[in-house]
Specification:
Length: 385
Amino acid sequence: MKRLHLFVTTCTALTLSCKTGGSKSDAKSQSAVDQPAIEIDSELGEFLWDGEAGAGQDVADAIAESVRRRATASGGVARRDAHPKAHGCVRARFDVLPELPPALAQGVFVPGKSYPAWIRFSNGSSDPKKPDIDGDGRGMALKLVDVPGAKILEDERQAQTQDFLLINYPVFFNKDPRDYVKLMRRLNSTNPLGVASAIIPLGIDGASILAKILFQKMANPAQERYWSETPYRLGNGQLKQAVKFSARPCQAVDNTQPPKNPDPDYMRLALVDSLSKGDICYEFLVQPRPDQSFDVENSMIEWSEKEAPFYKVATITIPKQVFDTPAQRDYCDNLSFTPWHSLPEHRPLGAANRVRRVVYQTISKVRHDLNRQPRGEPVNLNLPK
Ligand code: HEM
């Protein structure tokens, strides 16, 4: 793969913006969001991929079209294109450990600090009616609220939130944005041949990771381990480093087999049952990479835990609660999660994350516009009156 080395060497400082040519879709797209120049942190090993400029908007355009098409087909309600089926959106607490080494005590990981949080558990499939017993990648999206400090996104600088998006598999199935564009175009094409051949651009390695993600079954969304798959910066200045995240149940669970003859929505029922009986506890873990050979541009490769151990930085408590109400479902459907809802100290790294910057903002805007709902980040865990 050809990298834009020459280009990158002109943008070495992390504060430098690297202007890229706009894609042809910039002008025509109805769903285009304000796109700042793509920034890269070459000190942490980021580089721009050949043909990356415009990939985010191209992917966003393909997904936006699919969101509109599905909304029309389902009576006008626009849903998330990915992860539309939630098992529950629950109130939680994120307690940072009382003591952390300086290299980990950065960004939101202020020793002893506690944040209220929303957690949305979901299936990855774009079909919100797909029964839970079918294999799928499952999501755990965390939104810490009451987080001070200017955030990365220009139009949400004052937001009080920090999001962490995790899936129940350690690696992502693509590294090259151009292949991701091809995948999305084929997936969202109305030509059945295009859809049938969608995974070809992923190659054997990507297709095999995708298959492993999609064949996963689980008993209860709150008993599984989740990973960020993609890397993030931790910290600023001299102490900054590249890390990945993971959330792991505090205690190993004995039975993770799905039920026999299950309800199509058994994961929601399992979560309701667990949270009617008691609290759920998770460890939030950070995996610093030992050196630059752990590539931030290739999220298809797992960072070996032997060489790059995870360290606990916080405890997540989901207290016993009733969460499954129509008002809370509606509220959470209207939330927007993106890894770019972030302090600069947790800036997402790598091409997959750079593509996501445009995609999540665009799709969130499209679905809120179609549903005529206001967009905005929460400041606490209260449902609006
Ligand atoms: C280029 C790569 C990716 C693209 C284009 C993409 C796209 C999307 C889109 C369009 C949504 C719906 C957003 C909305 O409607 O507001 C979504 C949701 C989500 N994505 Fe991704 N995604 C990518 C990679 C990942 C990765 C690597 C992870 C984590 C390991 C992830 C985790 C999630 C989760 C958990 C949600 C659901 C958030 C919620 O509960 O609202 N995605 N993604």
